[in-house]
Automatic annotation (TrEMBL):
This is CoA-binding domain-containing protein. It holds the Pfam family CoA_binding_2. Residues 8-100 form the CoA-binding domain. It comes from Desulfosporosinus hippei DSM 8344. SMART domains: CoA_binding (SM00881). It comes from the Bacteria.
Amino acid sequence: MPSDIDQVLSQKTWAVVGVSNNTTKYGYKVFNQLKKAGYSVFAINPGLESIDGDSCYPSLAALPKKPDAVSIVVPPKITEQIISECASLGILNVWMQPGSESKTAIQAGEKQGITVIHNHCVLIHTRK
């Protein structure tokens, strides 16, 4: 798995599904950390228009550009839907934050040829 982590972290453009404007939530922390680490990051949350001055999009399909990787910070049932959306859009790198993963979502992603990172926190791996 470490080589998969390095491969996913080498992607330059990310989307964070489950962004929050609550600074104590992981959706906010992941979005903010990826930006600080130098990535180009899109925010995904159908309930928000913007976060810290950045546009927030309702879905991956609504993005102006396909991201290279997606960080998922939502409940497992929603993660399963996001995996399907990633597959249909040709997004091949997904990082499921702890608590967002399910066996079904992991297997569905891997079956579709998606590199799936789980049981690892992107916050830890992007701190320099």
